[in-house]
Amino acid sequence: MRKVVKPSKQNNNRNNTGNAFKAIGLVSAIGIDLTVCTLGGFYAGKWLDAKLGGSGIWTGVSVLVGLVVGALSIALVIGKVLRDK
After folding, report:
1. CA nearest neighbour of 33 among 68, 84, 61, 80
2. How many other CB atoms are there within 10 angstroms of residue 74's CB atom?
3. Can you tell me where the transmembrane regions are (predicted)?
């Protein structure tokens, strides 16, 4: 006969706490990453508008580039977290 071993509640709580902190860290990293890339694009675009002249086209293009770079960076972070599991 096979003996069924139930996990203790104490170990289960420790694993859930670690997973909760990992999830909080992942969500924070995603938010910070996207914010930094978008703001970097915005300020780079403002600088390009000032140097090259323009009616805000460089700001718009740079914000879009920042969003794309942020999305790619988020995909890499999520991929790394999923690989580590």
Report:
1. 68
2. 17
3. 21-44, 56-79
